[in-house]
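ok so i was messing around last nite and threw this chain in just to see what happens. nothing serious, just curious
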Amino acid sequence: MGKKEKEKGKEKEKNGKHSKGKHSKADAKQENQPHLEPLEKKFYEKELGRLQVELVKMQEWIKSKGLKLVVVFEGRDAAGKGGTIKRITESLNPRYCRVVALPAPTEREKTQWYFQRYVSHLPAAGEMVIFDRSWYNRAGVERVMGFCSEDEYAEFLRACPEFERMLVRSGIILVKYWFSVSDDEQERRFQDRLENPTKRWKLSPMDLQSRARWVDYSRAKDEMFKYTDIKQAPWWVVNSDDKRRARLNCIRHLLGVIPYEDLTPEPISLPPRQPDGGYVRPPISDQTFVPDVY
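result:
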């Protein structure tokens, strides 16, 4: 064996030791991405503002054409799903765009058809619904933590692709995002949550278990992709070690899902204000005001 072959073998062995037992195939793909410098805040904010204007245009198109859009956000804990959802929705009309983040099922819901409690949140014409975690709980946390039986899990893998094909046939536009974060970056974000009082609520007992069972979650995710990465509703993986890039990439991709047109209305002129007609306000002392502390 020549010197180059030996060096190549050592490097391969080193890489193998580093990744062994840590990452699934998709997570390994994330690590193989070329290193990029973090986006500058000024560029990020300018581009985010531009994309949010486009989101408003897309929402107007969805309302005008009576479209039904469902966007599913899944991924590792602390992968950046919530932050991306906030940036998508903060400029949209909440009457036509809502976020669904369901708690653990009640005892009654546990006896229902598994997809039943999600169906009630699906959009009507002109609406957009974002699932912050979804029916894929069964393939993730329920599978790993033993909250479902083997038969229930196997039935989910059989039924889910058919359920989603049925949604698409009904006219729903279904988009599924998986946020992928590396082991080291997830650890850094968990530590940040521990130290930041405003983020500590995000660190639940289930999050801690996800750290302890990283490999189990990786295997569950690989199996989930194997069955549910279907042509009618494929999984779109978002590399999210850089939160700013992940948000912009995800929003830009979402805008490309629907070929919308600009329906921005003509400039509006405010009508003249009504004359007071002798109206007299009640005394200020009759009202209760919030104290001016600042």
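not much to say yet. The longest strand covers residues 172-180.
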